[in-house]
Design a protein that fits this description.
Distance between the termini: 25 Å
Strand content: 25-35%
Largest sheet: 6 strands, mixed
Oligomer: single chain
Radius of gyration: 20 Å
Order of helices and strands: HEHEHHEEHEEEEEEH
Structural class: alpha+beta
Helix content: 25-40%
Number of helices: 6
Number of strands: 10
């Protein structure tokens, strides 16, 4: 539940805050679900599952840029002191360079999604691209998100071929059926 998550975050922040440092209320952002539909024409020598995994991963990076972690040696080369690295909560993934902090995405462009797809090697063209935000079709190029909301890609993996809101792939004018096991493995290797 959200209350349990907020409580865990509150406890973690309080354990590692500096004396005299106060925090405003912890607020969990609501999601704006983004769905994409369209037809993608593929080169004869690519896997549609690989293309779809790259599409999903690329759009997720547009919507929610990933945090980049570094190891201790990289952080020391950037000028961080050991005491700075071990101040605050311990991370299981490495050290976070605060100078590379990425703010929440407040807007994206449908044209950026289209460009992302077209720049994937093996994609010949994309037709009838439609983007939906919370089930409502976007007719403008700009998709904006309120400060208290975060974009989230509604990706379909396990029941892909039976989903109504999905990208359809074509190779040599024939429908390309996505193997969901391969798609899942390829997507997991990227994420």
């Amino acid at each position: 539940s959200f209350d349990a998550i907020k409580s865990q975050i509150q406890n973690l922040v309080m354990q590692h805050r500096s004396i005299g440092t106060d925090f405003d209320e912890i607020k969990i952002l609501a999601e704006d679900n983004i769905t994409i539909k369209g037809q993608i024409n593929l080169d004869s020598f690519v896997l549609g599952e690989s293309i779809l995994a790259q599409v999903y991963y690329g759009i997720e990076i547009l919507l929610k840029p990933h945090t980049v972690y570094s190891d201790m040696e990289e952080m020391m080369e950037k000028g961080y002191e050991i005491t700075d690295l071990f101040t605050g909560p311990q991370s299981k993934k490495g050290f976070y360079d605060a100078s590379r902090f990425i703010e929440k995405t407040n807007e994206i462009f449908v044209s950026d999604i289209e460009d992302l797809i077209l720049n994937i090697e093996g994609v010949i063209s994309i037709e009838n691209l439609e983007v939906y935000k919370n089930g409502i079709k976007i007719f403008e190029d700009l998709i904006s998100f309120q400060n208290d909301r975060i974009p989230s890609l509604d990706r379909v993996i396990h029941n892909y071929n039976s989903a109504s809101d999905r990208l359809t792939f074509y190779r040599n004018k024939n429908t390309y059926e996505i193997d969901t096991v391969i798609l899942s493995q390829l997507y997991d290797s990227l994420a």
